[in-house]
Protein backbone atom coordinates (compact mmCIF):
# COMPACT_ATOMS: atom_id res chain seq x y z
CA UNK A 1 0.00 0.00 0.00
CA UNK A 2 2.80 2.39 0.86
CA UNK A 3 4.50 1.65 -2.46
CA UNK A 4 1.31 2.49 -4.36
CA UNK A 5 0.95 5.76 -2.45
CA UNK A 6 4.54 6.66 -3.36
CA UNK A 7 3.89 6.17 -7.09
CA UNK A 8 0.50 7.78 -7.84
CA UNK A 9 1.44 8.77 -11.40
CA UNK A 10 2.53 5.24 -12.25
CA UNK A 11 -0.71 3.80 -10.85
CA UNK A 12 -2.78 6.35 -12.79
CA UNK A 13 -0.93 5.57 -16.00
CA UNK A 14 -1.40 1.85 -15.48
CA UNK A 15 -5.13 2.19 -14.92
CA UNK A 16 -5.46 4.47 -17.93
CA UNK A 17 -3.68 2.02 -20.25
CA UNK A 18 -5.71 -0.89 -18.92
CA UNK A 19 -8.95 0.96 -19.59
CA UNK A 20 -7.90 2.05 -23.08
CA UNK A 21 -6.66 -1.44 -23.96
CA UNK A 22 -9.88 -2.96 -22.65
CA UNK A 23 -11.94 -0.56 -24.77
CA UNK A 24 -9.89 -1.38 -27.89
CA UNK A 25 -10.24 -5.09 -27.15
CA UNK A 26 -14.03 -4.81 -26.79
CA UNK A 27 -14.22 -2.79 -30.01
CA UNK A 28 -12.18 -5.43 -31.84
CA UNK A 29 -14.38 -8.20 -30.49
CA UNK A 30 -17.47 -6.27 -31.63
CA UNK A 31 -16.06 -5.89 -35.14
CA UNK A 32 -15.37 -9.63 -35.26
CA UNK A 33 -18.93 -10.28 -34.14
CA UNK A 34 -20.36 -8.00 -36.80
CA UNK A 35 -18.20 -9.54 -39.50
CA UNK A 36 -19.26 -13.02 -38.50
CA UNK A 37 -23.02 -12.42 -38.80
CA UNK A 38 -24.85 -14.03 -41.70
CA UNK A 39 -26.95 -11.17 -43.05
CA UNK A 40 -27.97 -10.03 -46.50
CA UNK A 41 -25.80 -6.90 -46.10
CA UNK A 42 -22.62 -8.91 -45.57
CA UNK A 43 -23.58 -11.40 -48.28
CA UNK A 44 -23.83 -8.53 -50.74
CA UNK A 45 -20.63 -6.86 -49.47
CA UNK A 46 -18.11 -9.69 -48.94
CA UNK A 47 -15.11 -7.34 -49.20
CA UNK A 48 -16.40 -5.09 -46.43
CA UNK A 49 -17.13 -8.14 -44.27
CA UNK A 50 -13.56 -9.36 -44.66
CA UNK A 51 -12.26 -5.90 -43.79
CA UNK A 52 -14.39 -5.82 -40.65
CA UNK A 53 -13.11 -9.21 -39.52
CA UNK A 54 -9.48 -8.27 -40.18
CA UNK A 55 -9.88 -4.95 -38.40
CA UNK A 56 -11.42 -6.65 -35.38
CA UNK A 57 -8.56 -9.14 -35.14
CA UNK A 58 -6.00 -6.37 -35.57
CA UNK A 59 -7.53 -4.34 -32.74
CA UNK A 60 -7.52 -7.32 -30.39
CA UNK A 61 -3.87 -8.17 -31.13
CA UNK A 62 -2.83 -4.53 -30.92
CA UNK A 63 -4.51 -4.12 -27.54
CA UNK A 64 -2.74 -7.18 -26.17
CA UNK A 65 0.69 -6.23 -27.46
CA UNK A 66 0.33 -2.60 -26.38
CA UNK A 67 -0.62 -3.47 -22.82
CA UNK A 68 2.28 -5.93 -22.54
CA UNK A 69 4.75 -3.38 -23.89
CA UNK A 70 3.51 -0.54 -21.71
CA UNK A 71 3.23 -2.42 -18.43
CA UNK A 72 6.21 -4.77 -18.83
CA UNK A 73 8.42 -4.13 -21.85
CA UNK A 74 8.76 -0.35 -21.79
CA UNK A 75 9.25 -0.16 -18.04
CA UNK A 76 11.89 -2.88 -18.10
CA UNK A 77 13.65 -1.05 -20.92
CA UNK A 78 13.45 2.22 -18.97
CA UNK A 79 14.99 0.56 -15.90
CA UNK A 80 17.77 -0.86 -18.06
CA UNK A 81 18.53 2.56 -19.52
CA UNK A 82 18.56 4.13 -16.07
CA UNK A 83 20.87 1.43 -14.72
CA UNK A 84 23.22 1.85 -17.66
CA UNK A 85 23.24 5.60 -17.23
CA UNK A 86 23.82 5.33 -13.50
CA UNK A 87 26.66 2.85 -14.05
CA UNK A 88 28.26 5.13 -16.63
CA UNK A 89 28.00 8.08 -14.26
CA UNK A 90 29.52 6.09 -11.41
CA UNK A 91 32.41 4.96 -13.59
CA UNK A 92 33.05 8.53 -14.72
CA UNK A 93 32.80 9.83 -11.16
CA UNK A 94 35.36 7.27 -9.98
CA UNK A 95 37.74 8.10 -12.83
CA UNK A 96 37.86 4.41 -13.68
CA UNK A 97 39.51 3.67 -17.02
CA UNK A 98 40.19 -0.03 -17.00
CA UNK A 99 39.73 -3.22 -14.96
CA UNK A 100 41.65 -6.38 -15.73
CA UNK A 101 42.76 -9.55 -13.99
CA UNK A 102 46.10 -9.56 -15.80
CA UNK A 103 48.45 -7.62 -13.56
CA UNK A 104 51.38 -7.86 -15.97
CA UNK A 105 49.42 -6.67 -19.00
CA UNK A 106 52.04 -4.98 -21.17
CA UNK A 107 49.59 -2.53 -22.77
CA UNK A 108 48.43 -1.31 -19.37
CA UNK A 109 51.89 -0.45 -18.06
CA UNK A 110 53.10 0.89 -21.38
CA UNK A 111 50.26 3.41 -21.32
CA UNK A 112 51.01 4.41 -17.72
CA UNK A 113 54.74 4.86 -18.29
CA UNK A 114 54.14 7.05 -21.36
CA UNK A 115 55.36 10.57 -20.60
CA UNK A 116 55.51 9.99 -16.85
CA UNK A 117 57.63 12.32 -14.69
CA UNK A 118 56.59 11.52 -11.12
CA UNK A 119 56.28 7.88 -10.11
CA UNK A 120 55.24 6.68 -6.65
CA UNK A 121 55.38 2.96 -5.90
CA UNK A 122 53.81 1.32 -2.84
CA UNK A 123 54.73 -2.37 -2.64
CA UNK A 124 56.10 -4.92 -0.21
CA UNK A 125 59.14 -5.42 -2.45
CA UNK A 126 57.78 -5.87 -6.01
CA UNK A 127 60.60 -7.97 -7.38
CA UNK A 128 58.85 -9.39 -10.44
CA UNK A 129 57.29 -6.08 -11.47
CA UNK A 130 60.60 -4.25 -10.99
CA UNK A 131 62.52 -6.67 -13.18
CA UNK A 132 59.78 -6.74 -15.83
CA UNK A 133 59.72 -2.97 -16.29
CA UNK A 134 63.34 -2.20 -15.47
CA UNK A 135 63.97 -0.58 -18.86
CA UNK A 136 61.08 1.85 -18.36
CA UNK A 137 62.36 2.67 -14.89
CA UNK A 138 65.84 3.30 -16.26
CA UNK A 139 64.43 5.63 -18.91
CA UNK A 140 62.55 7.63 -16.28
CA UNK A 141 65.66 7.72 -14.08
CA UNK A 142 67.58 9.46 -16.88
CA UNK A 143 65.10 12.34 -17.03
CA UNK A 144 66.17 15.47 -15.16
CA UNK A 145 62.49 16.27 -14.54
CA UNK A 146 61.77 12.81 -13.19
CA UNK A 147 61.14 11.69 -9.64
CA UNK A 148 60.79 8.18 -8.29
CA UNK A 149 59.61 7.41 -4.77
CA UNK A 150 59.35 3.84 -3.56
CA UNK A 151 57.62 2.77 -0.36
CA UNK A 152 58.70 -0.70 0.78
CA UNK A 153 57.81 -2.80 3.78
CA UNK A 154 59.91 -1.87 6.79
CA UNK A 155 62.44 -4.70 7.26
CA UNK A 156 63.12 -3.59 10.82
CA UNK A 157 59.50 -3.87 11.95
CA UNK A 158 58.86 -7.43 13.23
CA UNK A 159 55.07 -7.27 12.97
CA UNK A 160 55.21 -6.12 9.33
CA UNK A 161 57.73 -8.74 8.29
CA UNK A 162 55.96 -11.59 10.09
CA UNK A 163 52.57 -10.70 8.60
CA UNK A 164 53.85 -10.35 5.03
CA UNK A 165 56.08 -13.41 5.23
CA UNK A 166 53.10 -15.55 6.20
CA UNK A 167 51.04 -14.09 3.38
CA UNK A 168 53.73 -14.65 0.76
CA UNK A 169 54.58 -18.14 2.01
CA UNK A 170 58.11 -17.06 2.84
CA UNK A 171 60.27 -16.65 5.91
CA UNK A 172 61.04 -13.33 7.62
CA UNK A 173 64.73 -13.70 6.71
CA UNK A 174 64.06 -14.25 2.99
CA UNK A 175 61.55 -11.41 2.90
CA UNK A 176 64.06 -9.04 4.48
CA UNK A 177 66.64 -10.01 1.85
CA UNK A 178 64.18 -9.25 -0.95
CA UNK A 179 63.29 -5.88 0.55
CA UNK A 180 66.94 -4.85 0.91
CA UNK A 181 67.63 -6.09 -2.63
CA UNK A 182 64.76 -3.97 -3.96
CA UNK A 183 66.03 -0.94 -2.05
CA UNK A 184 69.52 -1.28 -3.52
CA UNK A 185 68.28 -1.83 -7.08
CA UNK A 186 66.06 1.23 -7.00
CA UNK A 187 68.80 3.39 -5.51
CA UNK A 188 71.12 2.09 -8.23
CA UNK A 189 68.86 3.85 -10.77
CA UNK A 190 70.07 7.21 -9.45
CA UNK A 191 72.48 8.97 -11.79
CA UNK A 192 73.99 12.40 -12.03
CA UNK A 193 71.69 14.88 -13.73
CA UNK A 194 68.86 12.37 -13.74
CA UNK A 195 65.68 11.85 -11.78
CA UNK A 196 65.45 11.99 -8.02
CA UNK A 197 65.19 8.46 -6.62
CA UNK A 198 64.13 7.97 -3.00
CA UNK A 199 63.29 4.80 -1.13
CA UNK A 200 61.22 4.74 2.07
CA UNK A 201 60.18 2.10 4.57
CA UNK A 202 56.60 1.90 5.80
CA UNK A 203 55.59 -0.28 8.75
CA UNK A 204 52.22 -1.96 8.48
CA UNK A 205 50.22 -4.56 6.62
CA UNK A 206 49.32 -4.18 2.95
CA UNK A 207 45.86 -5.03 1.67
CA UNK A 208 46.63 -3.70 -1.81
CA UNK A 209 49.48 -2.20 -3.78
CA UNK A 210 49.44 0.84 -6.02
CA UNK A 211 51.52 2.77 -8.53
CA UNK A 212 50.96 6.43 -9.21
CA UNK A 213 52.10 7.80 -12.58
CA UNK A 214 51.55 11.58 -12.53
CA UNK A 215 47.77 11.78 -13.03
CA UNK A 216 47.27 8.05 -13.48
CA UNK A 217 47.22 5.28 -10.93
CA UNK A 218 47.12 1.49 -10.92
CA UNK A 219 45.75 -0.40 -7.94
CA UNK A 220 46.22 -4.16 -7.55
CA UNK A 221 44.72 -6.37 -4.86
CA UNK A 222 46.69 -8.96 -2.93
CA UNK A 223 45.51 -12.55 -2.94
CA UNK A 224 44.99 -14.44 0.32
CA UNK A 225 45.41 -17.97 -1.03
CA UNK A 226 48.77 -19.69 -0.98
CA UNK A 227 51.11 -19.44 -3.94
CA UNK A 228 51.67 -16.72 -6.49
CA UNK A 229 49.51 -15.94 -9.49
CA UNK A 230 49.59 -13.25 -12.22
CA UNK A 231 45.79 -13.25 -12.21
CA UNK A 232 45.15 -10.36 -9.85
CA UNK A 233 42.34 -7.78 -9.99
CA UNK A 234 44.00 -4.64 -11.35
CA UNK A 235 42.31 -1.25 -11.62
CA UNK A 236 43.49 1.73 -13.62
CA UNK A 237 42.13 5.19 -12.82
CA UNK A 238 42.96 8.80 -13.63
CA UNK A 239 42.97 12.11 -11.82
CA UNK A 240 39.61 13.80 -11.42
CA UNK A 241 37.84 10.78 -9.98
CA UNK A 242 37.16 9.53 -6.47
CA UNK A 243 39.33 6.43 -6.90
CA UNK A 244 42.43 8.42 -7.85
CA UNK A 245 41.73 10.80 -4.98
CA UNK A 246 41.63 7.82 -2.64
CA UNK A 247 45.04 6.68 -3.90
CA UNK A 248 46.42 10.20 -3.55
CA UNK A 249 45.14 10.53 0.02
CA UNK A 250 46.60 7.13 0.89
CA UNK A 251 49.92 8.19 -0.59
CA UNK A 252 50.02 11.35 1.52
CA UNK A 253 49.27 9.37 4.66
CA UNK A 254 51.89 6.74 3.83
CA UNK A 255 54.47 9.41 3.04
CA UNK A 256 53.94 11.01 6.45
CA UNK A 257 54.29 7.71 8.30
CA UNK A 258 57.32 6.48 6.34
CA UNK A 259 61.00 6.75 7.17
CA UNK A 260 63.85 7.13 4.66
CA UNK A 261 65.64 3.90 3.80
CA UNK A 262 69.05 5.61 4.00
CA UNK A 263 70.49 8.11 6.46
CA UNK A 264 71.40 10.47 3.64
CA UNK A 265 67.75 10.85 2.60
CA UNK A 266 66.79 11.43 6.21
CA UNK A 267 69.39 14.21 6.55
CA UNK A 268 68.15 15.81 3.34
CA UNK A 269 64.55 15.79 4.56
CA UNK A 270 65.56 17.30 7.91
CA UNK A 271 67.42 20.05 6.11
CA UNK A 272 64.42 20.83 3.93
CA UNK A 273 62.12 21.00 6.94
CA UNK A 274 64.55 23.24 8.81
CA UNK A 275 64.84 25.54 5.82
CA UNK A 276 61.05 25.85 5.52
CA UNK A 277 60.70 26.63 9.20
CA UNK A 278 63.33 29.33 9.03
CA UNK A 279 61.71 30.83 5.97
Mean model confidence by pLDDT:
80
Distance between the termini: 69 Å
* Portion of residues within helices: 55-70%
The biggest sheet, with number of strands, parallel, antiparallel or mixed sense and barrel status, is: 8 strands, mixed
* Topology, number of strands: 8
The largest beta-sheet arranges its strands as 1-7-6-5-2-3-4-8
Strand fraction equals 15-25%
From the 3D structure, determine the CATH topology of the largest domain: Endonuclease, Chain A
Q: Provide the CATH top-level class of the largest domain.
A: Alpha Beta
Descriptive overview:
The chain is α+β, with helices and mostly antiparallel strands and 279 residues long. It has 2 domains: 2-94; 97-278, Endonuclease Chain A (Endonuclease, Chain A, 2-Layer Sandwich), CATH 3.30.870.10. It is 61% helix and 17% strand. It has 11 helices and 8 strands. An 8-stranded mixed beta sheet has the order 1-7-6-5-2-3-4-8, with helices on both faces. Strand 5 and strand 6 (216-221) form a beta hairpin. It starts with a helix and ends with a helix.
Amino acid sequence: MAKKRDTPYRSLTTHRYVLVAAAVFVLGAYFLYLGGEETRFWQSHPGLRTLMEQLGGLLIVTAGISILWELIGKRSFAREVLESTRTANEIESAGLKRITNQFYDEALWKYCFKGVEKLDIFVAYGGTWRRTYLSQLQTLAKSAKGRIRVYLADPEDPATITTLANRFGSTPEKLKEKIWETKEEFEALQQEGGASVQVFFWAGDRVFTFYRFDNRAVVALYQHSEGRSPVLPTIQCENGGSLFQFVYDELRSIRTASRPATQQDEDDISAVVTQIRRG
